[in-house]
Amino acid sequence: MMSNGPTALPTFWEVEAAANWTSIEFISDLHLDESTPRTFETFASYLKGTTADAVYILGDLFEVWVGDDSRHEGFEARCADLLSEAASRLTLGFMAGNRDFLVGSDMLKACGVMALSDPTVMIAFNQRVMLTHGDALCLSDVDYQRFRAQVRNPAWRADFLSRPLAERRKAARHIREESERRKREQVAGQYFDIDPATAVRWMHEAGAPLLIHGHTHMPGADELAPGFGRQVLSDWDVDHATPPRAQVLRWDATGLARCSLACSAD
Asked: What is the reported pLDDT for 3?
């Protein structure tokens, strides 16, 4: 759980890979929704075909999640079934993002998915890597940080989840419309990135020289400071993007490698 204040140090939870694991994969920002059927099918095909021992989803698996009771019907039920089937064959981990922060323990337990705190330090292949969705580190996005503080408040969460499901769905549509409005008003080519000084401070304190995150939709790798690097995960869009996007970051004893899955949906 984050301490008070955007620059305060969080708790660095740790997860250690099983000794017999040979590969781990990371994905984020799929934004699954009924309106993106090809992205959903690409995800389903990926889960069925991956040879990784574990898949860690670092936030925004869903475009929106309005409560765990939604998993019993419609598109959400299809997603829950898909996760349950995959979790019967491999380790699945989920970290909440800015779109699906209301995914709770009921959903994860029902699907057999491991809950990951944000941030989490992953220990594997004699290395320590820090995992985060990334939104908590985008400190220059002041409006979003205010919104994040509001909706992560337990009182807000309890009040929202106490409302009827139909009312929550309507509220979620409004939040999405506001998010899209903010994107349209953004200066072309401008986006909010993580704060490198804060990220490096986290990494130094946790003894993790590599950061893996999503959220920014700007996939790539770079150096944040001497001795401290990062890997930014790709968002997925096989329905509307040209060219389509669907990347996986694979980690094994030889290092990290990116694999594009978008061509499998063509």
From this structure: 40
Q: According to the 3-state scheme, what is the secondary structure of 23-42? A: EEEEECCCCECCCCHHHHHH
Domain annotation for the chain: domains and CATH numbers: 13-137+194-265 (3.60.21.10)
Strand pairing category for 210-213 and 220-225? unpaired
d(CA 72, CA 87): 18
Query: What does pTM read for this prediction?
Result: 0.92
- CA 130/CA 109 separation, integer angstroms: 24
Residue 6: name the closest of 207, 162, 188, 195 by CA: 195
Q: Which residue has the tokens 């909440």?
A: 96
* Beta-sheet strand order (sheet of 23-27): 114-116, 91-95, 54-58, 23-27, 247-252, 255-260
The whole-number pLDDT of residue 8 equals 79
| Structure tokens, 173 | 């549509």
CB 52 within 8 A of CB 25: yes
